[in-house]
Amino acid sequence: MRLPVRGFGLVELMVAMLLGLTLVLALVQFLSSSRDSWALQQQSASQQEDARYLLGRLARDLRAAGSYGCLDLQRALPAGLPPELAQPVRFDRGVLSLITAVPSRFSSNQPQALRASDFGARWLLAGDCQRRVALGEREALTVLPGDWVVPLRQLEYREQSGRVQVRLNGTGNYETLIEQVARFTLSFGLAADAQAAGVTGRYQRALADADQTRLRSVRVHLVLAADMGRAAASRTRDLAFRQVTRLRNRPDGYRHD
């Protein structure tokens, strides 16, 4: 006896199609979520790398601010220091200005005329660390064998339109270091007086000229936004970084270790 051959009915076919479509939609949703998670992780990693770069650079420049080697400028330059060198860390109208240097010993066996521009610097210091110190900005200095040579650069940091930018030696355009910056604020830790080593009280947002000798550390608060074009609801994905850098040099020769 032969059994009758039956195919799929319309209802069964529709149920099967619905189940298949549900599985396909679930798979698409899973792949889309995985792609979004991967993109978010990549963006987060990139932002963390940007933050490490900027904060590392700022910390290095802050520690080098006011570093003039063994040259006692206050005693060796009777006319006094230019205002920029007397205040190696300044903050005015949202611009952080730093005077940094890497002192080195002049290695030539013959006297030589050198300019600040030879080192990509704004000023050039040269001397024997005892009685003779010369300071030049555009003019050439005669450097003798055994002298210390200190090129001084001026670095200006600012935040503008979601970017942290820097400019060298007070001329030309600002160059962008990182983007997608939602917040970039600086605050300054001051000692009770010029001789105290530690910070007293709260960090403050302003830095007056009279506070220069009491400045001990600088705190940076950096927030990077995942998408600068979105509303405040996306701020849950923003990344915040804080860093405190202790200064090591002062133009009057006092050094903090």
**Mean of pLDDT:** 82
| SS-derived structural category | alpha+beta
Low-confidence stretches: 228-235, 251-257
The major pleated sheet works out as: 8 strands, antiparallel
Radius of gyration: 30 Å
* Share in helix: 10-25%
Quick one: overall form? Answer: elongated
- Total number of helical segments? 3
Q: What is the H/E string?
A: HHHEEEEEEEEEEEEE
Query: How many strand segments?
Result: 13
How far apart are the termini? 102 Å
What's the quaternary structure here? single chain
> What fraction strand?
25-35%
Main features:
257 residues, single chain, 3-stranded antiparallel beta sheet, 25% helix
What does this structure look like?
- This protein is of the alpha+beta class.
- Helices cover 25% and strands 31% of the residues.
- The chain contains three helices and 13 strands; from the N terminus they run H-H-H-E-E-E-E-E-E-E-E-E-E-E-E-E.
- The strands form three sheets. Strands 1, 2, 3, 5, 6, 8, 9 and 10 form an eight-stranded antiparallel beta sheet that branches.
- The longest helix is centred in the N-terminal third of the chain and has 55 residues.
- The chain starts with 9 loop residues before the first helix and ends in an 11-residue tail after the last strand.
- The C terminus is likely disordered.
List the SSEs and their pairings.
Elements: H1 10-64, H2 73-76, H3 83-86, E1 89-92, E2 95-101, E3 104-105, E4 112-114, E5 123-127, E6 133-136, E7 141-143, E8 148-160, E9 163-168, E10 175-178, E11 181-190, E12 215-224, E13 239-246
